[in-house]
Every structure is written in structure tokens, then in C-alpha cells.
Amino acid sequence: MDKNLYDLMDWAAIEEITYSECDRPNKILGSHKVENGFLVQTFIPHAKKAELLIDGNKNPIVMECADEAGFFACLVGRSKEFRYQFVVTYDNDIVQTIYDPYSFESIYTEEDLSKFDAGINYEIYEKMGAKPMTLSGVEGVNFSVWAPEAMRVSVVGDFNLWDGRKHQMNKLGDFGVFELFIPEARVGDLYKFEIKTGKGEPMLKSDPYAFYSELRPNTASIVTDISGFEWSDENWMKNREEFQSIETDKSPAMNIYELHLGSWMRKEMQYDENGEEVNGSVFYNYREIAPKLAAYIKKMNYTHVEIMPIMEHPLDGSWGYQVTGYYSPTSRYGTPNDFMYFINYMHKKGIGVILDWVPAHFPRDLHGLACFDGSHVYEHPDPRRGTHPHWGTLIYNYARPQVSNFLIANALFWAEKYHVDGIRMDAVASMLYLDYGKNAGEWLPNIYGGNENLDAIEFLKHLNSIYKKKHPSSLLIAEESTAWPKITGALKEGGLGFDYKWNMGWMNDFLEFMKLDPYFRSGDYNALTFSLLYAYSENFILVLSHDEVVHGKATLAGKMPGATQEEKFNNLRVAYGYMMTHPGKKLLFMGQEFGQMDEWNEDVSLEWNLLEYENHKKMQRYSKALNKLYLDCPALYKLDYNPDGFEWINCTSKDETIVVFLRKTEKPEDTLLVVCNFTPVVYEREIGVPYKGIYTEIFNSDDKKFGGSGVGNRRAKKSVKKKMDGRENSLKIKIPPMAMIVFKWDKQ
What we know:
Glyco_hydro_b, GlgB_N_E_set_prok, 16 helices, Immunoglobulin-like, glycogen metabolism, 1,4-alpha-glucan branching enzyme GlgB, 6-stranded antiparallel β-sheet
């Protein structure tokens, strides 16, 4: 080797490179100015020869082999910087001309990194991960990842034979971010990050910021470009505020259909004569299922769909609630562009899309976030703060700004890039309480000795404030099961800033009430009326969700008492009727609208064949009609969060188990009189009414077309001036058995 060249080389650093233990290879590799020109060095494993081809030159310069592992160097006697490529001859005699990854500048600015370090780089997903781009006229992919305690990080993938020696990444300052631009990488390539921990142990990790991932059980990330989709939902996005306003007196109708995309409807598996599968996946693609689902949602008069997590997850049985790819729509149903098509299609049909999102915990899968660089990067280091013993999952370290930034940017990502109309945050209660699901000795109190998770509280406030600032018409919904105050309270008033909260208390109380034999419900009458004591403490969504129809709990129809299916469906109709007329937005899990009797199973489709049977067909017809009643009557939604929108007529008929109430708007002519009878007994009785005039029965769950007995009030009823229920006027009506009926008032 030339002595001048030999003296210029840092042999200790070269050893770091060849042993793959260097966190700043760009200090050695690439072109560097020296006294007599430029020292150019490269490390190319499996290369037996390397030449330097300078732009504008025909003949390359032969580089000297400094280490048989594949380290080459040469001295170029030029005074100005130059562009170049390497002509590489490999062990198998294949010759390839390549660009030097270490000749490209970083795409990060100091401001980018400082903001990420402070937890306020809300568009960090625009740079972190794998980004196809052109730098200095060269096409490739820029890779970056946060791994602050790693000894070394490499990109491995289809483009380098998954060899962690070939593309060792550059650590940027003291920010813990590693980066490298790889000209050979392309959209569609599989990749991971090979991380050598501080102990010198290598591990393979998927990209936390990957936009697309392999179909399970494979776990590689996939280079993808999500910028090319042409949205055509301008009208929806422009007018979304009117569909989703949370102003007290402008509350819109919101009737949500919750579903698991992979089991709402599936293709029938087909086999050839040898018994081999012909049609591959039984899942519909996002594009295939969009028109089917949209048509059903419109037919059934729902306003929104809420999709259980579609972020990439390894286990079907987790239903998506154990996420490994927070920025990746699951490849089970197609590509990111396919999912954009799905949401765009829904919007064009006037349907809102809410995504379930899981910021509370993450799984321990080896390719995921757990122990990401050999240290506790995303999870809290103390297991008493960082683990969920009962779930077997890990808890985010919300106090770490970069972790907070990862999650906040992710929520914004779905609103910005996928136009989602809302985020429903799963398991918020587990975030708020340090002792949630833990026994004594399994948790640590906060600095004040309490069980409140102060870091999680600050995270939620931070997230909600930024989200609403950037996407004010997109909704934030909390699944929170405790009495924590002001979940939907304004941030400036000490609240958490959510738009809505799932009313888990109502769901539990009401279902327990409905499970009772009708002749014994009078003993639990308070469970029926208790929810109105706190109905206006939060902006509630009444939910009958997926959690209530699995794990031996039975479906909603299956929970109902009765010796026959007809009796069960009678109970179910009055239950749905009470729910739809009670204050609060509505959510029902798929399959319950037609009375599926088998518990939900994520591995099979809903039992659509049940609609061949009259009972199920009538239950579906009832759900459709009840939903239309809700949409057609402003009194059932407009003042949902204003006490003026609800008024009891009678909530003391314990023995009969009947409740009578009004739903109202600011216009008296919108007033609805609702009567619910939770026993199989027909009553004829007088009830007080708010105004004198004509009352017409506009809805009756006991109608024969819904599977009822047909008892009702066919003719309009005129009030009489007779005191009843504390009112000056009253009506004498027939109350059907196990039914909900609605009257409309006319002052004539």
C-alpha cells in the first residue's frame, strides 16, 4: 500500500467498520478532504476489487484493498470536491457500478432533531422510517430510526442480501437518530434494522415508522410511497364540521357501526381437485369491501363506521389491539393506497370513518418496539411502571419526549394522510391509573403518593390539544371505564380534552338489567334510570361494543332472557329502543343488528345466512327502521349534551317496569314522547303529556313487521285536561308488551 495513503488512514476506526461496531461510519467512509487531496474509503463485503469512477472521467481509479473483509481506499489529488461512483467486482465476478451511500447529505436539519428531542416534531413521520426520494439527482431511499443506546445500526434488506455490514447508519449528533441514504433501495423492497446493542448483541427490528409491512407471520417492513393517491373527498372534508360538531346545541346525529374488517364479511374459500386453496386469502381487499360495506351502512341508516385497529399486528386473535406497526395499515387487506381508497369511498358515500388506536400498551414481539435497541427505549424501564401483568404487554414511557412524539405524530398521521374522521383511544383508564390491573407490590405511586399516572395525563392533554388544533373537525373518543372527571372537559378547565367518552357505566348497568327475568326487573329498576343522573357530566357515546359479545359473554341476543328466540328478540328490540332514545351518541357492534346468536369469532365471517330466517330478517328490519327514526328526529340527537333535551314524565313505575320521558329540541313541535315497557305485560294507562293536542304513535317496536305481537295505538290520541304525572294534560294509551313506542305531538 502507498505509504502516504497508509499514513492517512485511521486503522482503529477501520476495524470498527469491519467489525460492524461503528455508529458514525461517515467519519471514515466516503470522500474526506486531506492535505494532498481527498481520501476516499469504502467498505463493501464480498468485493474482490473496487474502482473509483469520477464523474466526467472514462477510466476509473483502482482502489487499494486495505482489509480483506472488503475495505478499499484511494487518494485523489484534487483540490475541489467531485461526484463519483464505485465500480465493484464481487467474489462471483459480477460487476456493478454503485453510488456511495456516504456521499449524501442528511435530510435532517438541526431544528428537526431538536424538536424531536423535545417531543414536538409533529410531522416526524415525514422523515423517520424509509422515504423514497431523489438526492443530488440520484434515486434511492433514505432510512432513519431512533435507537439512542445502540452501538451500531444497519439497514438490511433485499438490496444488500440482508447483510448488516454493508449499510451501517450514521448517528446524528447526540439525538440518538441513525440515518443513511441507500441508492440501490427501491419501493417494494423488504427491510429491517439490524441493531447491535451496547452489549454487542445483534437483533433485527421492524421499522417503527414503516408505512407498510409484510403479511403475518412475516415481519419485515416494506418500502412504500403513500404520496400518489388522488383523493376525491373534498366535499366531505369541507363539510365535515357539520356532521361532527360537538357544540352543545348543534349536536349532529351519530350512529356508529363498530366492526372488525376481517370478519364482517369474508370470501368463501375455494379449493382445487387436490384440496389445495385456490383463492389464497379469505379476506376481502380494502377496495373490494368498501362498496359492500358502504351499501350496507347506507341501507341500515348508520352515519359512521368504527374499525377495530387496522394498524399492523402479528396475531389475529389480538383483534389489532397489540400493535407492532403503528404507521402501517395491515397488509391482511391490501396496501396503504388500498386503504386510502376505502376511506375515500366511504367519504364519497357520506360515511364517517373512526379508527381504534392503541396508545396504552404494546406487545413484546421480538421484531417490535420492545427492548428496541437493547435498552428500554419505548417502555418504562421499571417493570412496576412498564408492564401490564395481566395483559403481558408493555406500557409506554410517556415521560420520554421522543416516545410521546412517536405517538402524537402517529395520531396526526392518520388524520393527515388518511383523512380519518376520528380516533377512538383504547384502554384510556389503564393509562390514567398506575395501579390499573395490578396487585399490591406491582405498581409504584406517583411523586405525590397517588395512583394517577401524571406522565400519561400530560401526554393525553398534549396530544388532544395538538390534534384539535390541526384537525378540529376530526373526533377524539376515549374508551374510559372509570369515574375520572372531565374526560371530555376543556383543557383550559382542567379536562383531558376528548370530544366523546364511551359510556361504559350505562352499558354494564343496562345489560345487567336486561339479563334479568322480566318479572324480576322491578327490583333493579334504578339501574334503568341511574344513567340520567350523570348523563350530562361528559359527552357520552352509548355503546354495545365487541367486548360484550366474546369470551363466553354471549351475544346481545343471547344475553336476553326467554325460553324462545322470539322472547329473546322481544327483549332485544326494547333494549335497542331504549338505547336509541336515551341521550348520547350511539354505537352497536356488527352482527347484533340482526340478532346473531353465536359469539363473535374473528376467524370467520358474520353469519349472514341467518337472514334467510324470518326472525333475523325482522330484527334487521327493526334495526334499520329504528336507525331511520333516530336520523329523522332531531329531538333524538340535537340536544344530546344539554339537559334541556331530556325530561322525565315517569321514572317511578317500578312495579310495572315502565319509563316515560320526552326528547326535545328548542322547538316544541319536535318533541317526542317515549314509552318503554320492560315486561311482557300489556298495559292500558294514562300518562302525563307536556302539551295539549294530538299525539300520534310514529314508532312501535312491537309491530308485527318487526316480530312483535302488534299491540299499539293505531289512531292518534287527543290529550285531555286531566292531571297525571305532575302534568296538566294526559293521554290514555295502550302500552305494548316488552316494547318501546314513540309519539309525535301536534298542537292542533
